[in-house]
Amino acid sequence: MIRVLLVDDQPLVRSGFRALLDLEDDIEAVAEAGDGAEGLALAREHLPDVVLIDIRMPVMDGIEATRRIAADPALSRVHVVVLTNYGMDEYVFHALRAGAAGFLVKDIVPDDFLHAVRVAARGDALLAPSITRKLIDRYVTQPLPGDPGTGLEELTNREREAVALVAQGLSNDQIAARMVISSLTAKTHVNRAMTKLHARDRAQLVVLAYESGLVTPRSP
Fold it and tell me: Which CATH architecture describes the domain 2-126?
């Protein structure tokens, strides 16, 4: 059973998402919160598989709540997905850097929403190649301030190559084709790189690749 925590300051939004989740046999909405502070407390209480959290909320916003969840060892298996009305805005990028596994726009169709919850619960980042490319485009034109990434010296040459391809927006299958290896081996390279770089998911790998200088942004 996939356990989901809903965090949004709009009760109507929470009830809408909960109604969709309650129709599924393999998903359970375990709790709801109206702000980030309450959401953080409920995450520690319920240890959900997925936290769906709005970015802009009173008391504590979704970015700070995401940062605290990502930093808490007790919540290492919790996957945060941020909710936004605005698509790829600056808040989404800050949330991804804070440790979110991906994002969803609130007007997503129900089938895609449910698929996204299952993807997040598996530990896969909610960043399809097309979305990753949008992330890259925005990062190139408006880079976020931050300290350079560290740990690249621990990567093998093949792992560095795989990370660079992730940062280009390629899926595991596309990475496998480019590197002439199996999809499983490509996934292994990516997962080992995430472990060595202490990245929670592919979203953070993309940011780390640019901030560390492994990949150099091209002029848009």
Answer: 3-Layer(aba) Sandwich (3.40)
